[in-house]
Amino acid sequence: MTKTARERLEGVERYLFDHLTEAERNRFEEHLFSCPVCADEARITAIFAANACAVFLQGFGPPSVRPGWSESVCLRPVPAG
Amino acid sequence: MEGDPFVGEHFSGYFSELMWIKLRTRFRSADMIREIQQETFARVMQALRQKDGVKSPERLGAFVNSVCNHVVLERFRDRSRHRQQDLSDNWPDKRIDLDAPLINQERIQLVESILAELSDRDRNLLRMILLGEADRAGACRRLGVDEDYFRVLLHRAKTRFGEKLANRKAHRA
B140 contacts in A (CB within 8 Å)? Predict the structure, then answer.
């Protein structure tokens, strides 16, 4: 991972996982809506996380032995404690 | 850009999902998010039809974000005016609604195939952090890795997911 890619990933991750202050979040969104590379990073990461949550919540395993697709999924991790 | 059908298509295909990701950090009601998306879309399209609207495509994103912020502010003002009503309307714990637009069967299958390639430890790490079973530091400590490890793991997993998604789209095209 190059430094730029690492910085991009950290920024997106902090944004999606709600680790930014209100002012930081607003600044990040100004950038996000103008930068297709960061927007794509955020979009793909959010989609991956949402669908991974869905998979984990229905019990990861071979499709043949899993229960049906559950509707109780989440994207944003709930901060522990 | 006036009357350009590409703008409408691009807006709904690209900015809708981005706006959803932005708004889900501020609102707990899917209906409210949809309403803000639609209102933003209507205002942006109206502005694009005016002579002094957005003239360069590269500024469209900043403009969309700015319009969306205005609509959000208006909704917050409305909420403070009608606090009691909003407390009941805007805070149901229907988390599925907030993620539903991002989830579909094809994406779930792709994610499953990626998770299947991971070790038990990596899968557990992702599960604990994404589901909020533990905070990042705690999950990494329990599984004997540092926090950078999670970052790289997430990066590789979602990159692989993006590649698979793009391949599927290319096959369909």
Answer: none
DSSP secondary structure letters along B15-36? IHHHHHHHHTTT-S-HHHHHHH
CB contact under 8 A, B65 and A29: yes
- Decide if the complex's ipTM is over 0.85: no
pLDDT tens for each residue of chain A, 81 residues long: 555 777 888 889 899 988 899 999 999 999 999 999 999 999 999 999 999 999 998 887 544 333 333 333 344 444 443
Q: Mean pLDDT per 10-residue run, chain B (173 residues)?
A: 60 85 87 92 88 77 94 87 53 58 92 95 94 90 93 93 91 80
Cβ–Cβ < 8 Å for B21, A42: yes
Residue labelled with tokens 């195939």: B113
End-to-end CA distance of chain A: 32
Q: Which chain B residues contact residue A13 at CB under 8 A?
A: 151, 154
CB-based contacts of B25, cutoff 8 Å, min separation 6: A18, A25, A76
Q: Report CA torsion sign: A15, B109, B94, B71.
A: positive
For residues B96 and A73, is the Cβ–Cβ distance under 8 A? yes
Asked whether B76 and B70 are in contact (CB, 8 A), the reply is no
B129: closest CA among B103, B105, B153, B99?
B153
- At residue A19, the pLDDT reads 87
The chain A residue lying nearest B125, using CA atoms, is A56
Cα–Cα distance measured from residue B87 to residue B23, given in angstroms and rounded to the nearest whole number: 17
